[in-house]
Every structure is written in structure tokens, then in C-alpha cells.
Amino acid sequence: MKGKIKIPKQPEVNIGTAGHVDHGKCITYDTKILVNHVSVVAADIINKLLEYERKISINNCECFFPNVKYNLVSFDHIGISNSVGFPYLQYIDSYVYYIETECGRKIGVTYNHPLLVKDDYNRYVWLKSKYLTPKVSVGVYDDKLIFEKIDKITTRRYTGYVLDLCVPRFHNFITSDGVIAHNTTIIQALTGIWTSSHSEELRRGITIKIGYADMPIYEFSKGEKKVYWSYPEYPGFENPVLRRVISFVDCPGHESLMANMLSGAAVMDGAILVIAANEPVPRPQTKEHAMALEILGIKDVVIVQNKVDLVTKDEALKNYEQIKEFLQTTKYYADAPIVPISAIQKLNLEYLVEAIEKFIPTPKRDLTKPVRMLIIRSFNINYPGVNYKKLKGGVIGGSIIQGKLKVGDELEIVPGYLYKRGDKMYNEPLYTKVLSLSTQYLRLEEATSGGLIGIQTDLDPALTKADGMVGNVAGKPGTLPEVYNEIRLDINLFTYVVGTDEQVLVKPLIKGEPLRINIGSAVALGYITALGKDWAEIKLLRPVAAEEGWKAALARRFNGQWRLIGVGEVRS
Fold first, then answer.
1. What is the value of pTM for the model shown?
2. Can you spell out the DSSP letters for 399-448?
3. How do residues 140-166 score in pLDDT, each as one tens digit?
4. Which domains are present in the chain?
């Protein structure tokens, strides 16, 4: 089952991943990283972090620092980009790999840390270090992306802390030697088997982040037995039938990235909630993501019990019972299927595909309504220094939630262009034309509701670069939602703050207090200007587009983090 997955048609359904972030792809203490464009040894970062008291302990060997961030350098299809990484430490007693290229570049990594290579099909893929061999070429950045052959690989026993830097959007950082090191998300643990969305971003430039991968689902038969898989072949089975194509929406999992998770959840039709078998249940992050999915009305969820290879059978069963007990406290997920897997060992992945097929149905779409799309990504696909005569318009990405769209159609985007005059923020709708439509692998003439779509427009790329259009709504001119600078919400506060280790009661709202609000794919800060028993009027610091009845997630600052405290519903 090697080679590129063939995607035969447009995806029909969006399935999000939420919950546990799959750590463990770390660098050793003597590896050098570019921090603030200066070479820093990982040991210096590790030692400072060990003195830092405000951390989240995952277990006795792992901890995450959501209030610490480093200015890093990442690589995307255009070149290098400034990025931010959040540190994670793990104490290990294991073998690590020290990799040196023919030009003397070095990096020390744990056994499953991915590096960028070219495969037999000349595609960019992320390959775990344990599969690397001398003469394989790894990606490095030296003014441009180049590939250098590995000269030697040595293994050493390592006892101590290793460092992971979790980088939203780009999912990689560059060492001071130029080696491009990948950090980790759960969707890559899954799509490493099926397809690699992030290598496609490097190769093509037309894709959709928050994190994105398309996958077909085939059903095979052998007598009365059936199995589901993502390739059109499966050993011992025959008669492949394409059931459908899905889009994965991979959302950042850390507490500090909750706003991004909610933006991605706005286009989800169902979700995979990932819980680690080697951690107590529920972690604050698990509770917060489950609550966020419920707020947005996502009822179809498959629970993934990952990392069962790291625990004993009895420990896995105990963890399973903890998951079942936690699910009983949720509104929708008490009977959700739980699939034990090991993403690294490729264990039970076919059962996960089967659960997705059986428990996350494709919603009914109304193609007769005027087209409407929530924008969750936007970017500039022009390379630096391109001749102005060859400039291409900006790209917007997201999911069509109703109607259908053709190449050549006119689009309106709201709120659109934002600008300040004095202390007040204003907006002007943008109007553009659809120049092309793309999924991850296909160029389309017409796109319908469902799945994730990239749209090349004739917009000024300065407007779309660096996710500048995220939170907007696009659609047929004259049919889009109202734009609000001040919004009225019916409010339902939770009993307890979501996402904290201890139980903290949600205090009543106070006139004048700041809130963070997620509506659709937009996130905005605001403050309460009027307040009733079960409603509030909120002055927004930036306008948002919304319709009556849309759900809004409400968050309040707690110990330096935005934490979910309730849900609102838009009222005109």
C-alpha cells in the first residue's frame, strides 16, 4: 500500500481532531535552534524552563509551558517565516539518534521525530528518524530549500530532558544548522499512514490550514466480513467500493490555542476526540475540547484512545473505564464509540476508519440556497521578488456550508476590509471573482457544500497573506449575514470554568468586563456594555459577521489564560 493516495472526488464531510496533542517528537539538549534569529542550544532553554514554576504537568515525565513562547523561524512553501513555539519537556531514558549531513549539519532527535525528505515519487514527506538511513537526503534551509544526503547516523543512550517546540500553523522550526525539524499533531499521526497534508503545503501552495488532509474511505468485503480503509486495496479482501471522501480539520490542542480550535470547529460536521491511554482522564484540555464541540452543536464524535502500546492491558482497560465515566458527564457523547489505537505502531487504524464511516454521517446539504463559505485560512501564493506582471491574486480557504460555487462566480466577503478612524473600527465589504477552485489534490470547475476548498481570487494578496481573511464569511453578493460592531447574546453560563485542574465556579458577568467571543470562524475581543439576567450586549473591538441563532463561545481570563465560561446565541 505504498504511493500517493488517489482522491477521486471532492470531499463531502469535514471531520475535526481535538483533544490530546501527541508529543514525544523531541530534540536533544545539545541541538541548536534559531530563537530570535540567534543560535541557542536547547540545553539553555531546558534549564530555564526547569526553573519556571508555571507549568502544566502531563504526568511524572512530561510538562507543558503554555505561558512561555519563543520566537522561532519556520518554513513554508514561500520560504522562511517568523513563528511562535510553545515549549514542552519530556524526561526520557532511551536511545536517541544523532544525524549529520555530508555538509556537516547536525541534529539530535528522539526515535520518532520526523524530518523532511524526498520519497521515491519525488514528493516532500516527513519521515521519522528511526526510518532514516545514510544517503537519504533531508531538507535544510540555506536561503532556499535544498536537500543534503545524510553522512552518518549514530545512536546513543540518553537520560535526561528533551525539548519539543509546538508551532501552530507551520508545525516546524529551523535549527541553527538549517535542518527543518517537525513538531507534532495528532492528524499527522493518522495521515502519516494515509497522506501528508503538510508536505503538500510545501509542494503546492494551494491548501488550507488550520491543519488539513483529505482521505477516501473504501469498503472491502470477504464473504460476510467487511473492512474499511483509505487505499483501494486491502490484503485478503476484494471488491473495493468508494464510500466517500472526507476532509480532516486538525486543530491545535494546547490551552493557549483554544481560539484556533474553536475557529476550526466552526466548519466541522463531526470530530475525533483524542485521549492518551497513558494519561489520567479527563485532562483539562480534554474537558475543554469536549465542551467546545458541544457548544458548537457537534454531536457525532468518535473517541480515540491513543498510545495503547505504551501501557499494559490492565492500564489500558482502566484508562478505558475512565474515558467511559467522563463521557457520561457530557451532553452528547455518553454512547460515543471508543477505538483503542497506536498511531505509531499502526494498530487498529482500520477500525478507526470504520468508526468514522459508521458514526459520523455526511450531513444533508441544501445546494439550492445562495452559496456561503466560512473562511478559516488565507494566504499569498506569490514568491518573493516575483515580477508584478505575474502576480497572482490572494487565496482564501474554508468550507462551503450551503449552496455551490463555480469558477467565474462573483463573491462578496464580510466584514471584509477593516480600518480604524480615530478609536473606532470600520469595515468595507470586499468583492472578488473566483479564478480557480481546488481541494488538496483536485482542481474543480464547481464546488459544492462539504469538505475544504481553496479559492484563488483576484484580491490583492496583501489582504489574504498570513491568514488575514480568517473569520470572514464569503458568498453570493447581497445574501450574507449582518455585520455587528456591538452584538446582543442570550447567555447561558456554565457552573464551572472549563479547562482548569481544580473546580472553579463561574462568577456572574460584570458590566464592563472583557470577554473573548468565537462566532463562526471569527474570534473577537469585546467588553460588556449592558447586562440582564440571561443576556448581554457586548461592544466588539473588531466587527464580526453573524446571523440570529448562531452560537458563540464565551471565554474569560483566568490565571493568564482565556477559559470557557459559557455559550451565547446571537439575537438581533
1. 0.69
2. EEEESEEETT-EEEEEEEEEEEETTEEEEEEEEEE--EEE-SS-EESEEE
3. 887 778 889 999 999 999 988 998 887
4. 13-20+192-359 (3.40.50.300), 32-183 (2.170.16.10), 372-480 (2.40.30.10), 483-571 (2.40.30.10)
